[in-house]
Amino acid sequence: MAVASDIIYSDLDHRLIKDGLGNLKLSTNIAAIMSSIDNILRTSKGERVMLPSFASKLRSMLFGSMDATLMKFISREVKEVIEAWDPRVQVVEVSVAADPDASTFSLSVNFIVKGQGNIFQYQTSIKGN
To answer: Distance between CA atoms of 62 and 73, rounded to whole angstroms?
Structure first.
């Protein structure tokens, strides 16, 4: 179990669940960064009332023609929004795989935490409603 002095980063857990004391649970270190990336990519621009420029345009791209041009645009969008909204992260590589029949694309994001040398991977699927 991590000692409090081992905690470098902490954020609210994106699932908004309570800990054993009834407080909102925190994610720490790499889990906090993964939660931040998830929040950035799953929030649509304009969705946050007091910060309408926060987030990505990924959901609006789900119903476009899923060709090589769109895949490059999605990769660029993912890199730009993550680095813009989480200054702890430098994106190394983004891979996109499309499933047009299901209006879904899968993302794999390799990133480093600035000041550290390890490469971490975040994976998710973005689905149409």
So the answer is: 12
Q: What are phi and psi of 17, to 5 degrees?
A: -100, 160
Helices 29-42 and 68-85 pack at an angle, to 10 degrees, of: 130
User: pTM score, two decimals?
Assistant: 0.83
Condensed to tens digits (0 to 9), the pLDDT of residues 15-73 reads 778 888 988 888 888 989 999 999 999 998 889 889 999 989 888 887 777 788 889 99
pLDDT at 5: 52
Radius of gyration of the CA atoms of the chain, in A: 16
In the block, tokens 């971490």 appear at 120
The answer to whether the Cα torsion of 99, 60, 48, 36 is positive or negative is positive
| Collapsed DSSP state (helix, strand, coil) of residue 53 | coil
Which run of H or of E encompasses 32?
Answer: helix 29-42
Spatial separation of the C-alpha atoms in residues 113 and 47, rounded to whole Å = 27
CA pair distance 30, 16, nearest whole angstrom: 17
- Contact of 64 with 71, CB cutoff 8 Å: no
